[in-house]
Amino acid sequence: MPKLTLTLDGRQLQQLPIGGQPVTIGRLPDNLVVINNPAVSGRHARVFRDGDTCVVEDLQSTNGTFVNDKPIARHVLRDCDVVQVGHHVLVFSNVGGNQAHRHSAAPASPPAGDAIGVATIPLSPTSLPLPPSRLGVLRVVAGESAADEYPMTSLTVLIGKTELAQIKLTGWFKPKVAAAVSRSGDGYTVSAVGAATLVNGQPITSRHDLRDGDRIEVCGLTLEFRLKPAPAP
């Protein structure tokens, strides 16, 4: 089932399946995702199913809704699109899984004294995926990067120039979001988003399942994907 992964400052807050009920986002308590932040309008945006596609729609918000750093009024979502509402980020995934993700049909009300920028949404034991038995790691083989390796501690790692990217690309002509590496269950995939992406020298056009030792090339950066035993909780 298609889903949104809500994050703030790199921290995963919630996974939201997109089913028959639109996912409404805003500052008012009647939204499904309530974000108590002055940058977010009372009814800011919504994400809903339209046949076989999912659509994000800005609800004439004051500060706008962005997809991959571009302002939108209405946008058909593609796998790994990055939706930004205020300081919060929602990563869209269109990969089916066998995890049971549920959320309450009733919107949550923000508690008194709710901190600015904290999303108040109903949580349940099945809201977040189980931790993987093996942790994916992206090691830098060639190209400029701020670190030698990047453990996949979040569900999605973005590669690009945007400030939301965990793996930053430098240079005037680099795309905001070039590619994304995501965890689905106990496996990992890479998706080409805004730039040509190669796996083991072969170009990919959409999502590609990763195996231990695969090499990802994007925008002059070469990353080696490795699987390690996940650390004990």
Describe it.
With 233 residues, this protein is mainly beta. Helix content is 0%, strand content 45%. The radius of gyration is 18 Å and the shape is globular. About 15% of the residues have low confidence.
How much helicity do the residues have?
under 10%
Question: Helix and strand string, N-terminal first?
Answer: EEEEEEEEEEEEEEEEEEEEEEE
Q: Oligomeric form of this entry?
A: single chain
Total beta strand runs: 23
Low-confidence stretches: 97-130
Mean pLDDT: 79
The separation of the N and C termini measures 28 Å
Shape: globular
Strand content: over 45%
The Rg value, from CA coordinates, equals: 18 Å
Q: In this structure, how is the largest beta sheet organized?
A: 6 strands, antiparallel
Give, in spatial order, the strands making up the sheet with the most strands. Answer: 2-1-11-10-7-8
Write the layout of secondary structure elements.
Blueprint: E1 3-8, E2 11-17, E3 23-26, E4 33-35, E5 45-50, E6 53-58, E7 65-67, E8 70-72, E9 74-76, E10 82-85, E11 88-93, E12 119-120, E13 134-142, E14 149-151, E15 156-160, E16 167-168, E17 179-184, E18 187-192, E19 197-199, E20 202-204, E21 207-209, E22 215-218, E23 221-229
Quick synopsis:
The chain is built from no helices and 23 strands. It has strands at about 5-10, 10-15, 25, 35, 45-50, 55-60, 65, 70, 75, 80-85, 90-95, 120, 135-140, 150, 155-160, 165-170, 180-185, 185-190, 195-200, 200-205, 205-210, 215-220, 220-230.
